[in-house]
Amino acid sequence: MDSSETRLPTVTQREQWMVESQVFQMYELLSSVPRNAQSVLLELQRDKHIEFLTNGLKQLGPSFCVLDANRPWLCYWILHSIALLGDSVDDELENNTIDFLSRCQDPNGGYGGGPGQMPHLATTYAAINALITLGGHRSLSSINRGKVYTFLQRMKDPSGAFRMHDAGEMDVRACYTAISVASVLNILDDELVKGVGNFILSCQTYEGGISGEPGSEAHGGYTFCGLATMVLIGEVNRLDLTSLIDWVVFRQGVEGGFQGRTNKLVDGCYSFWQGGVFALIQKLHSIIEEQLRLLDAGGSAIDSPQIASTSCHSGQRGLHDTSGSAKFSNIGFNFLEEPAEMEPLFHSIALQQYIILCSQLQEGGFRDKPGKHRDYYHTCYCLSGLSVAQYSYSKDADSPPLPRAVFGPYSNLLEPIHPLYNVIMDLYHEAHEFFSTS
Asked: What is the pLDDT of residue 313?
């Protein structure tokens, strides 16, 4: 008898089969319900989500004490989710949030996980995105950009990468949070950018995805962070985008959602971390076409002088004959102007179906997968991924999706996001204008 016929399934295989069974039961339930009665299952429970989110911003239970060093993240996850749903908080809650985040701002720059805590790149990114999401002069002017720049300089390692905090770990996430913050605040310059691209390149694996640090496994979150960073510093053409695409397209599972790594279970948060990669890829068509042409000619995807050097490729306009911060100031803005000439390379309806039917809870909030509990992190990134999927066939930032691009009723449509920063498009434009003139 062949040994393969008697081999017992692994724990991961059993878990995968269980998840598939739970998910497919939900899909079968939908198909068994009369069409005129399906609307409840297909509808985004907007009011319930807003209630769940608003209550969390006001007060959290004692079980959340384990997230004491992540309080700016809770602000961002909740506020961004509410904004995606087309709503906002009242004036009192807005002012309380601005005051709280101001107390998280370290006198020497950056934001800590709570008042009095040491500044950290992750919570700095979360706090600034939360303040941009609140919008308005009081919120945006509360950010001390000069001190933030000083903090970013301090986190810069001689190797070119960034550390998360003083003497902290150095990885792709640190690079993204630092570069994203500097870009959106219009303080990005040559000194902060120097060497970052080399570090990101060293983290692209044989699979094509990007790992957290050299020698580690490709991961959806790090792949988004690495790709977005390379766009923001004008060096995305140095990545092997053809192999990156090969890796990410196979992360969409039979359930319709995304896994974060090879042979892992589906998880709702990767609706954005992997889905957001596709939103960036769609605007990089000219670089991808050139890399494919080189491969067809028998060369390497990145061995052309035109590819290997920073040039005015898609999303990289305005980089010539400038110096200092000027050449980086409009990359994020110009990226939106690039048309999405490629159709999405993932099944956007299948992803929306997974989010609505399997991650959404009817009482409000989203979860990783069936059997898990709702939380603010998965609510934020499920909704962010849902927005990406809904707008995936739109050719430009001003084009609303057609009804057939939206799973369920058209009332499910969310606000569009800027895919590089994951903030609402209108709020990004307000911040861009504010930090370009102040």
From this structure: 42
